[in-house]
Write a structure and sequence with these properties.
Blueprint: E1 2-7, H1 12-23, E2 27-32, H2 37-45, E3 50-54, H3 60-74, E4 81-86, H4 102-129, E5 133-139, H5 152-171, E6 178-183, H6 190-196, H7 206-214, H8 221-233, E7 242-244
Parallel strand pairs: 1-2, 1-4, 2-3, 4-5, 5-6, 6-7
Helix pairs in contact: 1-2, 1-8, 3-4, 4-5
The structure holds NADP nicotinamide-adenine-dinucleotide phosphate.
NADP nicotinamide-adenine-dinucleotide phosphate (NAP) binds at residues 8, 10-14, 32-34, 55-58, 87-90, 111, 139, 141, 184, 186-187, 189-192.
């Protein structure tokens, strides 16, 4: 049995990736604060299972409870492979660095970097103990390599996830596990709505992002999700690689 654990499966890219795994015959566990009723429907249509774990990824105790629940659920003799998709992310607060509230900053760092590291570390250990293969993807961004005015925390957290991916990949080189990062490009999701609602003072590029929507240049999350799922299913997936959607579309 294979299972995909997907953070932020409630909407956007995460919901699309969850749907695609279910359609491929793989059970999915979604981790986010809110649920998505459609995923139960897709599971039923494809004779698979969707399970939701309510979790606030900005809180350590909530992540710990989710890990405990997953350990109970998953590690049975039939489990052969886990896909761990660290997808949940926060782009806000979008603001000049000196105006960012400390609590907002900590929340963004926790969701974008601390939670993916805790989950990946946890399942590397558990999967090794149970002789189960773990394929991990971390959803990163072009902002990891390109500074954007008003996005100091977002750019820094995504850059840190690229380095985490490359470092863990070296450590896992002699194991059956593998880890990649995936940069999805601009997609038509709630995150882009948040970006478009920024003020010019907080985010100098806001007009160009509004134009992406007006000119229909934002990509469909389901198409992007399909590329990520294909990469993860490919026997030649390259451990430690930062995959970029521009290589595919
Ligand atoms: N959209 C783009 O153009 C774009 C571009 C480059 C990279 N990305 C990256 O792609 C990934 C997916 O983005 P998206 O566009 O699909 O975003 P989205 O539509 O805003 O969805 C974000 C997901 O993250 C979850 N999430 C946020 N805060 C959370 C928390 N505290 N605890 C648990 N879950 C939380 C949300 O679930 P709940 O609200 O239910 O908790 C939701 O499912 C992110 O890592 C993002 O940085 C997006």
């Amino acid at each position: 049995m294979e299972v995909a654990i997907i953070t932020g499966a409630s909407k956007g890219l995460g919901a699309s990736v969850a749907k695609l795994f279910l359609e491929s015959g793989i059970n999915v566990v979604g981790i986010s604060r809110t649920d998505n009723a459609k995923l139960y429907q897709y599971a039923k249509e494809n004779n698979t299972n969707y399970h939701f774990i309510a979790c606030d990824l900005s809180e350590k105790a909530s992540i710990q409870r989710a890990c405990d629940r997953l350990d109970e659920m998953l590690f049975k003799e039939t489990l052969s492979q886990i896909f761990l998709i660290n997808n949940a992310g926060l782009v806000d607060p979008i603001e000049r660095a000196e105006n960012i509230d400390m609590d907002d900053l900590m929340k963004q760092v926790h969701v974008n970097t601390v939670a993916p590291m805790i989950l990946t570390n946890h399942f590397l250990k558990k999967a090794s103990e149970h002789h189960v293969r773990l394929l991990t993807a971390i959803v990163t961004s072009g902002a990891a390599e390109k500074p954007k005015y008003g996005w100091s925390v977002y750019c820094s957290t995504k850059a840190s996830m690229n380095m985490y991916t490359q470092t863990v990949a070296i450590e896992q080189a002699d194991t059956e596990h593998a880890i990649i990062a995936f940069s999805p490009g601009v997609m038509d999701t709630g995150m882009q709505e948040t970006i478009r609602s920024s003020s010019q003072g907080a985010f100098q590029d806001v007009e160009s992002f509004r134009a992406l929507k007006e000119n229909n240049e934002l990509r469909d999350a389901e198409i992007i999700g399909g590329v990520l799922v294909d990469i993860l299913m490919d026997d030649n997936m390259e451990n430690g690689k930062i995959y970029d959607i521009r290589e595919y579309i």
